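Below sits my pick:
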Amino acid sequence: MKRIIVGIALLLGCFSFAQKAHLSIKIEGIESEKGKILYTVFSDRSGFPSDVDKAIEKGLVRIENGEADIDLDLPKGEYAVMVFHDEDDNDELKTNWFGMPKEGVGNSNNHKGIPSFKKSVFKLSDDKTIKINLFYM
């Protein structure tokens, strides 16, 4: 009986550490209804921003009435989000010969310039809504 009680206590303890929070992401500044919004979510700097295979979440959302919303349930922690407007619907970010994006891009914390995990990271400890403004060159 003692082992059963200890087992239940350990099981309940595991659930408390695995608590999730809801992240709602509002994409703003979308210049056209063409294509879709692709997103990646990283929990550490490894692979950020372009190694999609190292993202803990990735996906796409459709643009409706000039807006796009992403809703995720994630374990509490620190994250950085990258999004881009895939206007030509080819699942790739179009760039010029310098490597500069030719489609709209954005990140959590909305900093401009070369994206870094350090500048994009935010803490998710409770349900949260963030806004990402797309930047077009």
About this structure: Residues 20-133 form a domain with the Immunoglobulin-like fold (CATH 2.60.40.1120). The chain has one domain: 20-133. The longest strand covers residues 77-86. The CA atoms of residues 65 and 95 lie 26 Å apart.
